[in-house]
From TrEMBL:
Keywords: Hydrolase. InterPro entries: AB_hydrolase_1, AB_hydrolase_fold, AB_hydrolase_sf. This is AB hydrolase-1 domain-containing protein. GO terms for molecular function: hydrolase activity. Residues 21-241 form the AB hydrolase-1 domain. Pfam families: Abhydrolase_1 (PF00561).
Length: 258
């Protein structure tokens, strides 16, 4: 299996190869590289698609506490390791957090960024308390059906088959969860920094996934081309409405690859 030893981490990744411009796609919290399968399939004929597992998710081990700025450093280091001096960066939720930070960390290496279902601010205090308590139970005793249903209710519409993710959640390292949840719930707001992100960007968001906040993010970004709203979309719109997400994403990448 392909691993890269970069930035002091042992990062699992997959790379379609090819001569097209490179695109790093990054997954959401509590998922892994499999989340991006629809986008890789949609883009790979024209673009070199790379996916990676973030620290403690999927096949990448957790080495200790981290921030999303550390994840951005991992992403930039991985693409340098793969010989992609400049690339597109994009992701779902947590992956979008990382894409924004990469654009701030090294704008000269980022062609453009795409944020899918990516909130700009941390969750409100009541939600942080609710999720913090749920994940504390999960870490201590393993996931219950109620825990996983709570996750699925955020990510997917009621009729979506999330059995793949149930299996993955049952395998999720209970030791990693407290570290990962701490960073998720305590992360810094990106709102004050949006105007400093000058690379081209696109925001894609589900109608039922904080669309007003997504509008604010699109307005705050210095060079946002579009806000794409997915009708009746939840958090993981890249899976549930893959064509409606991949189409605008492909158009964005094409425009900035000329």
């Amino acid at each position: 299996m392909p691993y890269a030893d970069v930035n002091g981490q042992h990062i699992y990744y997959e790379d379609t190869g090819g001569d097209g411009p490179a695109v790093l796609l990054m997954h959401a919290f509590a998922t892994d590289h499999d989340l991006l399968v629809p986008q890789v399939e949609a883009l790979r004929d024209e673009f070199r698609c790379v996916v990676m597992d973030a620290r403690g998710f999927g096949l990448t081990p957790l080495t200790g506490p981290y921030t999303y700025w550390d994840h951005a450093d991992d992403a930039l280091a991985l693409m340098e390791h793969l010989g992609a001096a400049r690339a597109f960066y994009g992701g779902v939720s947590q992956g979008g957090f990382v894409a924004m930070r990469a654009a701030l960390r090294a704008p000269e290496r980022v062609i453009g960024i795409a944020m899918i279902g990516t909130p700009v601010d941390p969750e409100p205090e009541p939600i942080r308390k609710e999720f913090g308590a749920m994940f504390a139970e999960w870490a201590a005793n393993g996931p219950t059906k109620a825990h996983m249903q709570m996750m699925a209710d955020v990510m997917f519409p009621p009729d979506y088959d999330w059995s793949l993710w149930e299996a993955k959640w049952r395998d999720w390292s209970q030791e990693a969860i407290p570290v990962q949840v701490d960073e998720l719930l305590a992360r810094d707001s990106m709102a004050p920094l949006l105007g400093n992100i000058t690379v081209p960007s696109i925001v894609i968001n589900g109608e039922y996934d904080g669309i007003e906040a997504a509008k604010g993010m699109a307005e705050g970004l210095a060079n946002c081309e579009a806000l794409v709203t997915i009708y009746r979309g939840y958090h993981a719109v890249n899976l549930t409405h893959s064509d409606l997400v991949s189409g605008p994403l492909l158009g964005f990448l094409r425009r900035h690859s000329r």
